[in-house]
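Task 17 of the worksheet. Students: predict the tertiary structure of the chain below and write it out as structure tokens. Keep your answer in the requested format; marks are given for formatting as well as content.
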Amino acid sequence: MRLLLIRHGDPDYVRDSLTKKGDAEAALLADLLSGERIDDIYISPLGRAQRTASYTLKKLGKQGVTKEWLHEFSCEMDISHSELLRKAYPDARLLEDGTPVRSIPWDMLPSFLMQDPRYLDPEDWKKTPVAQNSNVEEVYSWVTSSLDDLLADYGYRRDGGCYRVLQESDKTVAFFCHFGVSCVLLSHLWNCSPFIPWQFLCMQPSSVTELVTEEREQGTAVFRALRIGDVSHLYAGGEKPSFMGRFCELYSDKTQRH
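Model answer:
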């Protein structure tokens, strides 16, 4: 079985759609995917993912299925009562009364992440200040259990950290979604803390991440990545990858996101 995790094109967050650049990226992506054998397509309910997918659906002459759990991963995180978390998230969104609050957990400053090894542990991340001041564990469980339910429909049932093969499948399934939720799916498939892909991967807009099952023991499968954050379609089409989601390479470069 093969999974394709596809991030939406360059986003217009205000309109929850794509920028002009994002549309160009989605068109080039559709050209790439038109040469793929894709059996089923699942899409986030958010507009930027829906619009990105529409180019590929038209090329392939297929219908997609919207899944709520592919919504960008977000949780209610209150950092107003934690001085440590306020320092860890210096760009925290403010409420009207000036109270700092964040709805996404992965933009923590790396120095704070490294001070607490629990963030990198596959189980202990649930005991960290972020988890204790949010519903991140609850949302994580909903997303990952939804993935497992879907994989079971294709014949792969979660069994410990692997998947029991009830029925072999050579299907290719594509997910048009978002960076944060893609990292959650990867962390579950790889049995690692979500903070590892959140902090150390950057899947740029319209990128493709490909995983395939490996069944070295009959009846037991794991998912292994063949490519992560592939944007070769953009280079082939002369379109520079978007900087969206990245932070500055050089702190002195004030033109890039800090």
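Marker's comment: The first strand starts at residue 2 and ends at 7. Residues 77-132 form one domain.
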